[in-house]
């Protein structure tokens, strides 16, 4: 790893669960007491959160309605700036933790009514440069 590169901590995905019978509220979301303030803050409605990561799965059932736009700052997809689809997994996980919809399936995020601005600055290997992050900001 050079001085101008960043890397996610390597992990292995052992299983992908496509659909759950009932929506789950992740432990971390409960731990910070997010559900207790959803009504008071309208679930984060009116907020846009930029996520600089590996992109986001564009057709994800809990997230496709949450994304307002995005941009790719990597060489993935031949450098197409309009293709910010997640070809790693990490960015989708982060987006879900933040804003997965409260829709009775999958999981629910910390701010389920917030919107996402997806900024793909890390490639399919979870790697990127400081320049891609700077450009994304």
- Structural class based on helices, strands and sheet pairing: alpha/beta
Rg, rounded, reads: 15 Å
Tell me the helix content: 10-25%
Number of strands: 5
Overall 3D shape: globular
Through-space gap between termini: 22 Å
Mean pLDDT: 92
Q: Which regions are unreliable across 5 or more consecutive residues at pLDDT < 50?
A: none
Largest sheet: 3 strands, parallel
How does this structure look, described?
- The chain has 137 residues and is an alpha/beta fold.
- It is 16% helix and 18% strand.
- The chain has helices spanning 27-31, 90-99, 130-136, and strands spanning 5-7, 48-53, 67-72, 115-120, 127-129.
- The chain has a three-stranded parallel β-sheet with strand order 2-4-3, with helices on one face. Strands 1-5 form a two-stranded antiparallel sheet.
- Helix 2 (90-99) links the parallel strand 3 and strand 4 (115-120).
- It is globular, with a radius of gyration of 15 Å.
- The mean pLDDT is 92.
């Amino acid at each position: 790893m050079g001085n101008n590169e960043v890397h996610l901590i390597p992990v292995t995905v052992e299983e992908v669960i496509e659909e759950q019978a009932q929506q789950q509220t992740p432990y971390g979301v409960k731990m910070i007491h997010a559900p207790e303030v959803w009504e008071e803050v309208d679930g984060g409605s009116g907020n846009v959160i930029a996520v600089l990561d590996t992109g986001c799965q564009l057709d994800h059932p809990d997230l496709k309605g949450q994304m307002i736009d995005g941009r790719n700052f990597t060489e993935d997809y031949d450098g197409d700036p309009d293709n910010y689809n997640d070809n790693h997994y990490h960015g989708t996980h982060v987006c879900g933790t933040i804003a997965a919809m409260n829709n009775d399936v999958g999981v629910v995020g910390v701010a389920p009514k917030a919107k996402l601005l997806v900024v793909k600055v890390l490639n399919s290997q979870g790697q990127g440069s400081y320049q891609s992050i700077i450009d994304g900001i």
